[in-house]
Amino acid sequence: MSKIVEILSPEEIRRTVNRLASEIIERAGDLSDLVLLGIHTRGVPLAQRLTQQIEILEQLTIAVGAIDITFFRDDLDKVGMRTPAKTQIPLDLTGKFVVLVDDVIYSGRTIRAALNAVNEYGRPESITLAVLVDRGHRQLPIHPNFVGKELPTAREEQVKVYLEETDGQDRVELISP
Ligand SMILES: O=P(O)(O)OC[C@H]1O[C@H](OP(=O)(O)OP(=O)(O)O)[C@H](O)[C@@H]1O
Ligand SMILES: O=c1cc[nH]c(=O)[nH]1
């Protein structure tokens, strides 16, 4: 039977998102050029939460969008085609400070695909990466700039993120076989 351990509680997720929002503000250039792009599935609500918190702290409207990386995966043949969710990029990204947002980073292949997807919407001034959980085991030279939780894991383990918007609850768990 597999073992399940809670890694982040709802309160810890709330505090982590707030901290990440503050870090993004601290390191952003001009906040009026900031664009947060959430990666489907759970990166999208996370990007919206971060945006909301940045807007509360800075009293500014921040652009937020969503990316579906399905067509940009390098392993489409292995994972099979999913119905692509709609990519929503609110503006030309040329000259913008783009922050990609995802729930988990593992191999880094999702982010590689997201970089290719973003490329079709202009040439940003910079692209950084915010993740809720970095579980290690990268297969590409990709490193997040903003990390909610560094979580050393074994390859055979799984990190599962639940969010209210997609799953009806906030929780991060580590599942060991
Ligand atoms: O660094 P990687 O090895 O690419 O893994 C990380 C990705 O895996 C999960 O997405 P998944 O493909 O399971 O889709 P989902 O977000 O729709 O659940 C997670 O949400 C990340 O996007
Ligand atoms: O454990 C993992 C690996 C990739 N993506 C996840 O969401 N969890």
TrEMBL record:
Q: Which SUPFAM superfamilies match?
A: PRTase-like
- Keyword Glycosyltransferase on this protein? yes
Q: Which family does it belong to?
A: Belongs to the purine/pyrimidine phosphoribosyltransferase family. PyrR subfamily.
Organism of origin: Lyngbya aestuarii BL J
User: Which parts of the sequence form the motif PRPP-binding?
Assistant: 98-110
Database matches in InterPro entries: PRTase-like, PRTase_dom, PyrR, PyrR_bifunctional
Keyword Glycosyltransferase assigned: yes
> GO:BP terms for this protein?
regulation of DNA-templated transcription
Pfam families assigned to the protein according to its UniProt record, in alphabetical order: Pribosyltran
Name the chain's protein: Bifunctional protein PyrR
Q: Which UniProt keywords apply?
A: Glycosyltransferase, Transcription, Transcription regulation, Transferase
Instruction: Tell me which domain of life the UniProt entry assigns to the organism this sequence originates from.
Output: Bacteria
Q: Give the E.C. number(s).
A: 2.4.2.9
> One GO MF term, please?
uracil phosphoribosyltransferase activity
Q: Which reaction does it catalyse?
A: UMP + diphosphate = 5-phospho-alpha-D-ribose 1-diphosphate + uracil
For the Phosphoribosyltransferase domain, which residue ranges apply? 7-148
Describe its function.
Answer: Also displays a weak uracil phosphoribosyltransferase activity which is not physiologically significant.
